[in-house]
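Re: your question from the hallway

Yes, I did run it. Sequences:
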Amino acid sequence: MIVANRKPFEEIMEMLKPYKKILLLGCNECVTVCSVGGAKEVAVLASEIRLSRLKNIIPVEIKEHTLERQCDPEYALSISSFVNDYEIIISMACGCGVQTIAETYREKYVVPAVNTTFMGSSEEHGVWREKCQGCGNCILDKTLGICPVTRCAKSILNGPCGGSQGGSCEINKDTPCAWQLIIDRLKQMNMMEKYLEIQPVKDWSTSRDGGPRTRIREDLRI
Amino acid sequence: MRLSYPTNIKIIKVPCTGRVDILFILKAFENGADGVCLIGCLEGECHFLTGNIRAKKRVEYIKSLLEETGIGAERVAMYNISAADGRRFAEIAREMTEKIKALGPNPAKKQVE
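Structure:
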């Protein structure tokens, strides 16, 4: 899922400063699962904004609304009947959602309430960790399901490096060395011969280095 | 026991402090409460095992929310007492009321026209 962090309250209030009628938009997908921008978080932020405005005696009217998915134009269009009743839209979705709403309602000022942080998975309740960088050329078959591109600080393809100490990365002892994890898993699976396959220099053109990416499936286009 | 405690406290019953959502507390402040006090069972004695421990974490989180909105973290508190300890309940009720009185009214209380 896409994992995000809520922006500091002060920053949010600064963006909303001149506005009295606010549409606070949540998203039912990734940001709900990582507890940052679902219906619940929309209600909490709306309550916080109201409390702050009440304290400072500045009127505010907030509509709380959560879309099934903010990154899809058809869901974005579902708010067209009331979007013009509000002066500003503050989105609690990831950057994709914010941009879809901004593209759908070009005359509206759309601002983000969260900082989109990474693609990750939940390790336990309340803990999310980055697991994928979307490099566009997956090598998880070679590394037995542990991504060195993401989980190694240097994205080394033939690791570990000299900074691997006691199973941890030198950047932080709480960050496991991805290559230690890979080797442990290769041993466990009795597949150490895979470790001897030297990985060639990675073609990063499929990653962000090749610029913004687009995927088109002609058969699905209407 | 004939214990007395301040009359300006509104008691809201919940099956367990674990039921208390952060929104309940935010809404209380939006509706003009000057302070909110969660009273749960003693730690380790939760009928649902961890309800009061989870409530304690939520109270910590809500304190950060109240601080950033300018309402003040000290307006919310959690105590753990035994359901049989009426004396301590009355004590906490007085303690909390005095603390909130010293802080003054909730700054977000709706302005009376």
